[in-house]
Amino acid sequence: EPEVTQTPSHQVTQMGQEVILRCVPISNHLYFYWYRQILGQKVEFLVSFYNNEISEKSEIFDDQFSVERPDGSNFTLKIRSTKLEDSAMYFCASSVSLTGELFFGEGSRLTVL
Amino acid sequence: QKEVEQNSGPLSVPEGAIASLNCTYSDRVSQSFFWYRQYSGKSPELIMSIYSNGDKEDGRFTAQLNKASQYVSLLIRDSQPSDSATYLCAVKDSGYSTLTFGKGTMLLVSP
Question: What is the tally of helices (H) and strands (E) in chain A?
Fold first, then answer.
């Protein structure tokens, strides 16, 4: 069964460092997303991406965040200068269309020290 | 600010019973509604989607939607210990890609 894959599964970084989280969406999906979940909190929307550009972003997705699809398979989330409050599980998701039926990857746990 | 509210639980039911999970949402323009299951430490997994008022059944799961009351529910029949997880309600507006999630209800099914 096709699945969304994410790397790394866990990353520990120092405050102020840049991190890149990587995702390979399901191959025939056209819409890509990043969500995050702080421990014990809601799953929160960060950004959606379609046709090589951002289609929507939340207030959380400020200038420290960027997304890129550098080739035909990878979808990346970059955090330029990490803060303690960026510590969370980051989920990549993809969908065939705009129905809202998302397929999530297993997540990348980011710990900022 | 769109809100999706769920009782955090835990909701405890014995094996074989019906589990009833509820969700209310604040934005009347919400058009699409989803239930995701999230096991501890894992990612959300789509169980059901519902787009129009009424009931939608899929195996042991039934989703119910009442747009007038801004209320969505999920019934799980013949609950199994493997159903023990947090159930996330999510809503979406028409034409947008963003899902707004509730905090989830933890379900515990005891053997």
Answer: 0, 11
